[in-house]
Amino acid sequence: MIVGHQKQWQFLKKSAELGKISHAYLFSGPEKVGKRKVALEWIQLLFGENVKLEKNPDLILIEPEEKEIKISQIRELIWKLSLKPYAAPLKVAIIDKSHLMNQEAQNCFLKTLEEPKENTYLVLITEHPDSLLSTILSRCQSIKFYPVSQKEIENYLKKEKINEGKIQEILKISMGRPGRAIDFISSSEKLEEWQKNIKTADKILSLDLADKFQYAKELAQKNNLKEILEVWLSYFRNILFEKINQKNLDSLNKIKKIIEKIQETNFLLSTTNINQRLVLEILMLEL
What we know:
Blueprint: H1 6-18, E1 24-28, H2 35-47, E2 59-62, H3 71-82, E3 91-96, H4 103-114, E4 120-126, H5 134-137, E5 141-144, H6 150-159, H7 164-174, H8 178-186, H9 188-204, H10 209-219, H11 225-245, H12 252-271, H13 276-286
Parallel strand pairs: 1-4, 1-5, 2-3, 3-4
Helix pairs in contact: 1-2, 3-4, 6-7, 7-8, 8-9, 9-11, 10-13, 11-12, 12-13
């Protein structure tokens, strides 16, 4: 079930019905907002109801390996696209987190865009379209995705028979991202971990610099660092909205700078092999 994004879905559906499908699409927007879900639903529409997507050789999924998509993956993709469809009427490839294609991979991929094969289609999914070559961007049909309204997520949660108290909590922390809301109802542990990290974010503000640096050292060793930073981002955004509602403008710039620094830190950690402890210490200077 697609939560929100009806304008994007209707455009894709109409394109399929009219047979006016672009060779390549770029789905861009925040993480966990539903880009991949829409892509899979659309591919199912193209394949037909009788063709299963699971383990289908005509659906090729490319994902990062160790924070990057390598040229070897793109070469394998090109080879697979050269083969005739096996079970479906066409072949489709999804390149998830396409901004993590390294320079060699992007240049190699560009050749595929310049010489499209019949009955083969590409969907690039990204949170950072600016990290892709302009020549790649210019050859893709761009479809932008935005955070979904709280009402749409709330209606979905009610259909899933989630209790009202939990719905309100999930709405507050999902920030318009259906994928995140689904994570929370699928795993109570994830919601508990989120609540724990919220308390930590609140505590950090009162620490002195030495303790903040010690925490940065400990944090750098964690495997779920990206998720922790997402919690902090949600926490400080909620503070920002509260201060705006209270018309407390004195500390707005400070909160804005913290949010920007968390976003920058998360981007660097997601897309580069930067020293994690160092970038976290720089973040601590802002908190």
